[in-house]
Design a protein that fits this description.
Low-confidence stretches: 9-29
Mean pLDDT: 86
Radius of gyration: 27 Å
Subcellular location: Cell outer membrane
Number of strands: 0
Order of helices and strands: HHHHHHHHHHHHHH
Shape: elongated
Pfam family, one: YfiO
Family: Belongs to the BamD family.
Number of domains: 2
CATH architecture of the largest domain: Alpha Horseshoe
Function: Part of the outer membrane protein assembly complex, which is involved in assembly and insertion of beta-barrel proteins into the outer membrane.
Keywords: Cell outer membrane, Lipoprotein, Membrane, Palmitate, Signal
Length: 291
Amino acid sequence: MTGRSGIILRTVTALALASSLSACGNRGGDGFLANFWGSKAEAPLETFGPEEIYKRAEFQLEDGDIDEAVRLFGEVERLYPYSEWAKRALIMQAFSYHADRDYENSRASAQRFLDFYPADEDAAYAQYLLAISYYDQIDQVGRDQGLTFQALQALRTVIERYPESEYAKSSILKFDLAFDHLASKEMEIGRYYLKRGHYASAINRFRVVVEEFQTTTHTAEALHRLVESYLSLGLTDEAQTAGAILGHNFQSTGFYQDSYNLLQGRGLEPEAAGKGWLQDIYRQVIRGKWL
């Protein structure tokens, strides 16, 4: 591994080892740096070169003082804006903010890196940091789904712009999980409506999953809930067609068995019937163009 990726990897390793080294009392190198900087603590930062300040920032990061590390990385960029060390400091500042779960500032630093150094070897990592700064927030309860859409967009950029980078594979996995998260949210709202007898509103949510998120893990349940909802409204053609789609693609699931039992209880079969959007889906299923 070359470039800043190697430095970042070493920094992560150092952070992981810091507590164990401290417990063992094996901090000889850190003690040297601490004594060195302690002896020059009164000197203004302007008297130090960019590499010295950068290494001091790395030391603070390894020592767990992320706020000071962020400040010092920023000072490298401020005092030596056109140096190689300023470029390194900027990507490390984004990394440090993310390590501290300060996602907004991590995004800002990563975006600034992309604006200043779009062709740099670490641009892929900056884009990845920007993406996961959104991704790492989407599971927080009550968060607006706009974060998930932004995560998807940023992850797609990594996948499409840097397909050969070491971050592409992780981005693909996270993209699929974020996509599944959106479907999960639609299901959650749909179940809420269904439980309270708001069948039309429930159908609208389950339809979104079937039409837009059919590759996620929620499709089988969405079809089953459609069977339930349509039967509750007395719309038997739609219920039968939803059951037919479910049986064609998810026959081995418990959701199909539950839907089959519901239909049989009304003297119905899971088969295509009538007209409408589900008939369109069913025709795609038969032609192998759905899922």
